[in-house]
C-alpha cells in the first residue's frame, strides 16, 4: 500500500459457530476498518481467512474479531499464522463455499428481537414501525422456519413472501444490518397477523389491538409465537387464570409468565444480575426466578418460584404495549401432547379453550417449546433446553459422524452426531402417547435432513417398554445397524461428563425418580464409578416397595405408608387415607410391590409422611412441594448404612422413624423438610467420601432430575468440595432425563470407536 508501514500476511482459522449468524459481513466491515485485503470462506469447522495489511492492524483485527463478534456467533478459538511473501489480493472477497465442501451446515437457533429492531419497531418514523415481523441478521426466526439446507430464504417458510425492492436492497448491501438476513421483510412484502374469534372467523380490523383488548377484558387468547402456540391471559387476573386451568385441564403445574421488561419481573421476583442477563440474552429463555414472597402468586405456581420470560418476538412486544405488565404464556397443548404449532390445528384443537386466536401466515416448520433455565452458581443451569438453544451443538473433539442416541421416556430428547459435534434435540415431551411419538420420529427425520446425516449406530435406554427403545429397535432391525442399550444412570453420568468435557473415570452421584437397573429393579439413588466405556454400582439407597407400582407414583401416600412400615413404624396418626390398611397389607405381604431405590420416590414418601401432600398430579410434584415447604433448619436425622454385597447402602429407616415421631410431636413440616434434605446432604457426603477413598477418584459428577432441587444444590456440592473433591454439575444440557441422550451418545461413541460390538454391553 506504499505507506511505508511494514506489510505482513496471515492465515487465520476460526473454530466455532459462525455460519448463518452474520459473521462474514462482520468480518468484511472489520477488514475495511483496518484497511486489510484478502478473503474469507466458511469451512466445516468455522471460517478461514487470509489477510494482508499493516502488522499492527492485523493484530487489532484479530482482537476485535473476538471482542465484537456478532451476538449469535460462538467462537471457540482463533489461530493465526504468518504467511511468507506478498499475496495477490484484490480488496477483500467473501468466497462462497460450494455446497459440497461445507460439511456442517450449521443452523442457527431462533433469536429474540434485538435492541436495534426493537428501537425501529417503536419508532414512528421508521418504515417498519409497528410491524410484528421485523428482524435482522442478529435476530428473528431461524431453526423453526427452515425446511431444508442450505439455509436460504427458498428453504424456509418465508419462501412465499417475495421481498419488495427496498427489502431486497437491504438484503444485498453488506453495510446493512439486514445483509443476508433470510427472513427479512416489511409490511409491504412480509407476513401479516390476523385475529380469529372463538369459532375461527376473522375479526375484521382485529389484529394485535383486538387481541390486546380481549386480554384486558379477561379473555384467553391463543398467540402464535416462534416455535408454537401459547395460551395467554392477564397474569394478575386470577379468575382468567383459573378459567385457563379449567379449560385446559391443566392440573397444578406452574404457569410461565411473560413480563414486559425486567422491572416488571422485579416486581414479582428477585432478579440477580446474572438472571437479568439471562432474561435479556438473545436466547430469551424462561428463567426460573424466586418469588419475592413465597405465598405470593399461588394461582400461577404453588412453589416458591415463577418461570419468567421477556417478550422475544416483535409481536410479543406489540401485544404487551405499554399497559400490560405480565401475561400468562403457557404452551398450548392438550393432555401431554406436543405443543400446537399450525393455524388450522390451533383453531381445531383449542375450540372451547381459546376465546381469540392471534395468528399469522408465516408457517412454523418445526415445533420448539420455550427453554427453561435457572441460574446456578453464576452459570446457566438448563431444565429444558429448547428454543434459542437448539440446534446449537455441544463440541466433542473427535466425535465421529452418524451416531444417534434415542433418549429415555420422560422429557424425551435425542442426540445426533456430526464430526466433532453432538446435536441434542429440542424438548419433545414425555414419550407416552402416539402424538408425542410421531413428533419425536418426525424430529429425528428433520435433524437427519438438516444435518445431512444417516445413523450408522444407535443407542437407547435399557428399559424395554420405552417408546424410544422400541423406535431404536425397529430402526436397528430395518437398517441393519448396531444398537447399544445404555443403563439409565450410566447415561446420566456420561451426560454430565460430556457436559463438562471430562475424560477418564469419575464418581457419579445420580439421583432421579426411576430408571431400569441391571438387576431388573428400578434405580435412582445411585453412586456409580464410571467412564464412557462402563460403570460399576458402588452405592445406593435402601429399596422402597412401591405398592401398586405406578399408582404409588401418583398416590404418594402409598409410599408414605410403605416407608413407615419398612422402617418398623405404624402409620397411625400420619395418614387418614381410607385405603391405608389395605396398602399396608400389600407391603407386608409384598404383593404388587416392585422395589425402587429411586431418590425421587424417597422424596415422595417424605412429602407424604410430613403431611405436605398425599397425591400428585405430575411427576416430581412431591419433591417440588417438599423443597418449597422447607424453611431454615440446621438439624439432621440419624443416618445409617449397611452393606449389601459390595454395595454401600443408605438405610433411611432410622430417619423415617424420627420423622414420624417428630410429626406426632407436632413439629412443623417446614423444619422437618429441611432436616430431611440436610440428612441427604450428609449421607451423600459420607457415601461419596468413602467411595473416593476406596477408589482414589476425586472427581464427582452430579446428575439426575433430583438435582433440579436448589436446596440440595446450594449445599451438597459445597459439602463435597469441603472434603477435597472436585464437583461437576450441568450447564449445557439438562440434569433431568432430557440431558441423558448426550450421555448415551458418548457411551455409544466409546463402544463404536473401540470397535466393540454394540449388543454385548
Ligand atoms: Zn434485529
Ligand atoms: Zn419489504
Ligand atoms: Fe433419569
List the domain count as a whole number: 4
CATH architecture classification of the largest domain: 2-Layer Sandwich
- Biggest β-sheet, characterized? 10 strands, mixed
Count of DSSP strands:
30
Spans of at least 5 consecutive residues whose pLDDT stays below 50 are 757-761
The CATH superfamily of the largest domain is known as ATPase, nucleotide binding domain
Query: Can you tell me the overall shape?
Result: globular
Termini, distance in Å? 65 Å
Can you walk through the features of this model?
The protein is an alpha/beta fold and 761 residues long. It has 4 domains: 7-94, Alpha-Beta Plaits, CATH 3.30.70; 194-360, DHBP synthase, CATH 3.90.870; 393-500 and 738-753, 2-Layer Sandwich (Nucleotidyltransferase, domain 5), CATH 3.30.420; 511-532 and 537-730, 2-Layer Sandwich (Nucleotidyltransferase, domain 5). It is 32% helix and 20% strand. The chain contains 23 helices and 30 strands. The strands form 5 sheets. A 10-stranded mixed beta sheet has the order 6-13-7-8-12-9-11-10-14-15, sandwiched between helices. It has a 7-stranded mixed beta sheet with strand order 27-28-24-23-22-29-30, with helices on both faces. It has a 6-stranded mixed beta sheet with strand order 16-19-18-17-20-21, with helices on both faces. Helix 5 (207-216) crosses helix 9, helix 17 (599-609) packs across helix 18 and helix 19 packs antiparallel against helix 20. The longest helix is centred in the C-terminal third of the chain and has 27 residues, at 669-695. It is globular. 53% of the residues are buried. Mean pLDDT is 94; it is low at 757-761. Fe (iii) ion binds at residues 488, 492, 512, 515, 704-705, 737.
Amino acid at each position: 500500500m506504499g505507506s511505508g508501514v511494514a506489510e505482513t500476511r496471515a492465515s487465520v482459522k476460526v473454530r466455532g459457530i459462525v455460519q448463518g449468524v452474520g459473521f462474514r459481513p462482520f468480518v468484511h466491515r472489520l477488514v475495511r476498518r483496518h484497511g486489510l485485503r484478502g478473503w474469507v470462506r466458511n469451512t466445516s469447522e468455522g471460517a478461514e481467512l487470509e489477510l494482508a495489511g499493516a502488522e499492527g492492524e492485523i493484530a487489532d483485527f484479530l482482537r476485535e474479531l473476538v471482542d465484537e463478534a456478532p451476538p449469535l456467533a460462538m467462537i471457540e478459538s482463533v489461530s493465526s499464522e504468518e504467511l511468507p511473501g506478498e499475496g495477490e489480493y484484490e480488496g477483500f472477497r467473501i468466497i462462497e463455499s460450494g455446497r459440497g465442501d461445507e460439511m456442517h451446515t450449521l443452523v442457527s437457533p431462533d433469536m429474540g428481537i434485538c435492541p436495534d429492531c426493537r428501537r425501529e419497531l417503536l419508532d414512528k418514523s421508521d418504515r417498519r414501525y409497528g410491524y410484528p415481523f421485523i428482524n435482522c441478521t442478529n435476530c428473528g426466526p431461524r431453526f423453526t422456519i427452515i425446511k431444508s439446507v442450505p439455509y436460504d430464504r427458498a428453504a424456509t417458510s418465508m419462501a412465499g413472501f417475495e421481498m419488495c425492492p427496498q427489502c431486497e436492497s437491504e438484503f444485498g448491501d453488506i453495510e446493512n444490518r439486514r445483509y443476508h438476513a433470510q427472513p427479512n421483510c416489511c409490511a409491504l412484502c412480509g407476513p401479516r397477523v390476523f385475529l380469529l374469534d372463538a369459532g375461527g372467523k376473522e375479526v375484521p380490523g382485529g389484529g394485535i389491538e383486538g387481541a390486546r383488548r380481549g386480554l384486558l377484558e379477561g379473555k384467553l387468547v391463543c398467540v402464535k409465537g416462534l416455535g408454537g402456540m401459547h395460551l395467554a391471559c392477564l397474569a394478575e387476573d386470577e379468575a382468567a387464570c383459573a378459567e385457563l386451568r379449567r379449560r385446559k385441564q391443566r392440573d397444578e403445574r406452574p404457569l410461565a409468565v411473560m413480563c414486559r421488561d425486567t422491572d416488571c419481573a422485579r416486581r414479582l421476583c428477585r432478579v440477580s444480575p446474572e438472571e437479568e442477563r439471562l432474561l435479556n440474552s438473545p436466547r430469551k429463555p424462561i428463567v426460573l426466578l424466586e418469588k419475592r414472597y413465597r405465598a405470593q402468586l399461588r394461582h400461577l405456581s404453588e412453589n416458591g418460584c415463577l418461570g419468567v420470560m421477556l417478550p422475544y418476538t416483535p409481536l410479543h412486544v406489540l401485544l404487551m404495549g405499554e399497559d400490560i405488565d405480565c401475561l400468562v404464556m403457557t404452551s398450548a397443548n392438550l393432555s401431554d401432547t406436543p405443543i400446537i404449532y399450525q393455524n388450522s390445528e390451533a383453531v381445531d384443537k383449542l375450540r372451547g379453550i381459546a376465546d381469540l386466536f392471534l395468528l399469522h401466515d408465516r408457517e412454523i416448520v418445526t415445533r420448539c417449546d420455550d427453554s427453561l433455565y435457572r441460574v446456578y452458581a453464576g452459570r446457566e443451569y438448563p431444565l429444558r433446553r429448547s428454543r434459542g438453544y437448539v440446534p446449537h451443538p455441544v463440541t466433542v473433539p473427535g466425535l465421529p459422524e452418524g451416531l444417534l442416541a434415542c433418549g429415555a421416556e420422560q422429557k424425551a430428547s435425542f442426540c445426533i452426531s456430526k464430526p466433532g459435534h453432538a446435536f441434542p434435540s429440542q424438548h419433545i415431551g414425555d414419550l407416552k402417547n402416539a402424538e408425542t411419538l410421531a413428533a419425536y420420529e418426525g424430529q429425528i427425520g428433520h435433524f437427519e435432513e438438516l444435518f445431512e446425516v444417516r445413523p450408522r449406530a444407535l443407542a437407547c435406554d435399557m428399559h424395554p417398554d420405552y417408546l424410544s427403545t422400541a423406535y431404536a429397535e425397529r430402526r436397528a432391525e430395518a437398517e441393519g445397524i448396531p444398537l447399544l442399550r445404555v443403563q439409565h444412570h450410566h447415561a446420566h453420568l456420561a451426560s454430565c461428563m460430556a457436559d463438562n468435557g471430562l475424560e477418564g473415570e469419575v464418581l457419579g452421584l445420580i439421583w432421579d425418580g426411576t430408571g431400569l437397573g441391571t438387576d431388573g429393579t428400578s434405580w435412582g439413588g445411585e453412586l456409580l464409578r464410571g467412564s464412557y466405556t462402563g460403570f460399576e454400582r458402588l452405592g445406593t439407597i435402601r429399596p422402597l416397595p412401591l405398592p401398586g407400582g405406578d399408582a404409588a407414583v401418583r398416590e404418594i401416600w402409598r409410599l408414605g405408608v410403605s416407608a413407615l412400615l419398612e422402617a418398623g413404624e405404624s402409620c397411625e396418626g400420619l395418614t387418614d387415607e381410607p385405603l391405608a390398611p389395605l396398602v399396608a397389607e400389600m407391603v407386608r405381604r409384598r404383593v404388587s410391590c416392585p422395589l425402587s431405590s429411586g431418590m425421587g420416590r424417597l422424596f415422595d414418601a417424605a412429602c407424604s409422611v410430613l403431611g405436605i401432600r398425599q397425591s400428585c398430579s405430575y411427576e416430581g410434584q412431591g419433591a417440588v412441594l417438599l423443597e418449597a415447604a422447607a424453611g431454615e433448619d440446621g438439624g439432621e436425622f440419624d443416618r445409617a448404612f449397611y452393606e449389601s454385597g459390595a454395595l454401600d447402602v443408605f438405610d433411611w429407616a432410622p430417619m423415617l422413624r424420627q420423622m414420624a415421631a417428630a410429626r406426632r410431636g407436632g413439629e412443623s413440616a417446614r423444619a422437618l423438610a429441611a432436616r430431611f434434605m440436610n440428612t441427604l446432604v450428609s449421607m451423600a457426603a459420607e457415601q461419596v467420601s468413602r467411595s473416593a477413598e476406596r477408589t482414589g477418584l476425586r472427581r464427582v459428577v452430579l446428575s439426575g432430575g433430583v438435582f433440579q432441587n436448589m436446596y440440595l444444590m446450594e449445599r451438597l456440592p459445597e459439602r463435597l468440595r469441603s472434603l477435597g473433591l472436585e464437583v461437576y454439575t450441568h450447564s449445557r444440557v439438562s440434569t433431568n432425563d432430557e440431558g441423558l441422550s448426550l450421555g448415551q451418545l458418548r457411551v455409544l461413541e466409546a463402544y463404536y470407536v473401540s470397535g466393540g460390538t454394540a449388543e454385548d454391553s
